[in-house]
Amino acid sequence: MYINSDAALIVRAPFNTSEENINKVILKYKDRLQKTQKEVQLRNLKFNKKEFVDGERFLYLGNYYHLKLMDNPEILLDFKDEFLLSKKYLSYAKNIFIIWYKRRAYEKISQRVRWYAQKRGFKYNKINITNAQKRWGSCSHQGNLSFAWRLIMAPLTIIDSVVIHELVHLEVKNHSKVFWNKVGSLDKEYKEHKDWLKNNGYLLRLK
Ligand SMILES: [Zn+2]
Fold it and tell me: What are the C-alpha distances in Å from 68 to residues 62, 80, 85, 87, 162?
């Protein structure tokens, strides 16, 4: 049972659960659910839906850059301190942006993973960039590291904190004290970085 990103209440229960029982559980958590629902509604009000219009701002590595629509049909999407997008491809703008973000995410995150892995001798297998909406990163038992492409919108310190978190999982699978001590030795402000993602993560999206 949770409030989704559209502020709707989602309840998952076995199909034979009675409505009465479901209602009982909802009533029990009513206050907390309503609080979360209000927060999500407020966030959605603050977050401007992307329209891909001239002058609109898009996040990249923690900074906002303006979008400039170009008549030149040669340009699909270019980045030179602003985003340049050909008007011809406007109807595909969202997908074009996602492809661009994914490529940049792969380049930047791979580079940060390599850097920390060399520094501390972490052994990983490969890096995947995912469409995950809720999870920023994960680490498989095979040593594969996955990261959401949306991270590329965040400041580098935040990207690094997720990279460090997943690299430490290569050695410690749980979230024990040992784990957080190791994380802390590479990312002294990991608590602040976690809070930043909790509070600002909703901005890192194209909707
Ligand atoms: Zn973790």
Answer: 19, 11, 6, 9, 31
Q: How far, in Å, CA of 116 to CA of 164, rounded?
A: 7
Q: What is the pLDDT of residue 47?
A: 66
- What confidence tens digit (pLDDT) does each residue in 139-169 have? 999 999 999 999 999 999 999 999 999 999 9
Distance (Å) of CA 37 to CA 41, 197, 205: 6, 19, 19
158 CA to centre of ligand 1 in angstroms: 15
Q: How many CA atoms lie within 13 A of 126 on its CB side?
A: 3
Q: What are 144's two structure tokens?
A: 């594969």
For 164-191, the pLDDT digits (tens) are 999 999 999 999 999 999 999 999 999 9
pTM of the model: 0.80
Compute the distance from residue 30 Cα to the ligand 1 centre, in Å: 29
Could you give the CA distance from residue 173 to residue 138 in angstroms, rounded to a whole number?
10
122 burial (CB, 10 Å; 0-12 / 13-18 / 19+) is buried
In eight-state DSSP terms, residue 91 is: G
* Residue partners of 70: CB distance under 8 A and separation at least 6: 84, 85, 86, 87
Question: 139 CA to middle of ligand 1, Å?
Answer: 8
Ligand 1 mean position to 138 CA, how many Å? 7
Cα(170) to ligand 1 centroid in Å equals 10
